[in-house]
Amino acid sequence: QGQFVESEGGLVRPGGSLRLSCTASGFPFSEYTLTWYRQPPGKDREWVAWMGALTPETSYRDSVEGRFTISRDNAKNTMYLEMNSLQPEDTAIYYCTAAGLKTYSGRGIQVTVSS
User: Fold this and answer.
1) Where are the beta strands (DSSP E) in the chain?
2) Percent of all residues in the chain with a pLDDT value above 90, rounded to a whole number
């Protein structure tokens, strides 16, 4: 059964940085496309960033373009979301997801951006 072990989130001041990670097990991680989603308080879940399986192609929602970076280390079965210049509107629960033959998701990482 595939699953993720997630890093801890936390409280960050506006303008700060945080790196999230999810380490996979139980499925062929390198063959899966990766997506980070987030759910802000009181709002629907939204797509944040995407990365291809066999190519380094990436894509970002407009509001995080240039501030967030998605990456993967297939040797470590780990995906990352580097977040810089964080703003209060980035406050959300962040979810890592891998899609392929099946779809696997983490349980969510709380990120709070506040002064």
Assistant:
1) 3-6, 10-12, 18-25, 33-39, 46-51, 58-60, 68-73, 78-83, 92-99, 103-105, 109-113
2) 97
Rounded to whole angstroms, how far apart are CA atoms 6 and 24? 9
Distance CA 37, CA 109 (A): 10
Give the Cβ contact number of residue 12 at 10 Å.
19
Q: How confident is the model at residue 1 (pLDDT cuts 50, 70, 90)?
A: confident
Amino acid at 63: S
In the chain, what percentage of residues exceed pLDDT 70?
100
Residue 86: alpha-carbon gap to chain centroid: 14
What single-letter amino acid sits at 66? G
Tokens 């779809």 locate to 103
**How big is the chain, counted in residues?**
115
CA distance 22 to 98: 10
